[in-house]
Amino acid sequence: MTIALYARRKQWPLDDVEVRLRHSRVHAQDCRDCDTKEGMLDVIESEISLHGELSAEQRNRLREIAERCPIHRTLTSEIKIRTRLI
């Protein structure tokens, strides 16, 4: 949604966006580019397909925008869930 809104505002020829996600859990010690080194980590792999006559520069910019969207920022930040019965 963030990608489409950005492209529309810039009047870029983006026809459609497809996002595929894969989730897995790995041992932290097996993740070379992770800060955490103990326990298990959630890994989300994202594949984005951009449909339209976009330049390489526009495609790269839209990938950057995808990494700044509110959902991406939430998932890459520390998350605490507090549950209470009411």
Compact summary:
This protein has 86 residues and is an alpha+beta fold. 31% of the residues lie in helices and 31% in strands.
Structure description:
This protein has one domain (2-76). It is extended, with a radius of gyration of 17 Å. 31% of the residues lie in helices and 31% in strands. It has 86 residues and is α+β, with helices and mostly antiparallel strands. The protein has 3 helices and 2 strands, in the order αββαα. The protein has helices at residues 2-10, 56-66, 70-76; strands at residues 14-27, 40-52. Helix 1 packs across helix 2 (56-66). The model has no long low-confidence stretch (mean pLDDT 90). The longest helix has 11 residues, at 56-66.
Main attributes?
two-stranded antiparallel ribbon; alpha+beta; 86 residues; 31% strand; 31% helix
Structural topology:
Elements: H1 2-10, E1 14-27, E2 40-52, H2 56-66, H3 70-76
Question: What proportion of the residues form beta strands (DSSP E)?
Answer: 25-35%
| Rounded Rg | 17 Å
Which residues form runs of ≥5 with pLDDT under 50? none
Strand order of the largest sheet: 1-2
Alpha plus pi helix count: 3
The biggest sheet, with number of strands, parallel, antiparallel or mixed sense and barrel status, is: 2 strands, antiparallel
What fraction, in percent, of the residue positions are helical? Answer: 25-40%
Structural class: alpha+beta
| Number of β-strand runs | 2
Q: Given the C-alpha coordinates, what overall shape results?
A: extended
Count of distinct structural domains: 1
Order of helices and strands: HEEHH
End-to-end separation in angstroms reads 34 Å
Q: What's the overall average pLDDT, rounded?
A: 90
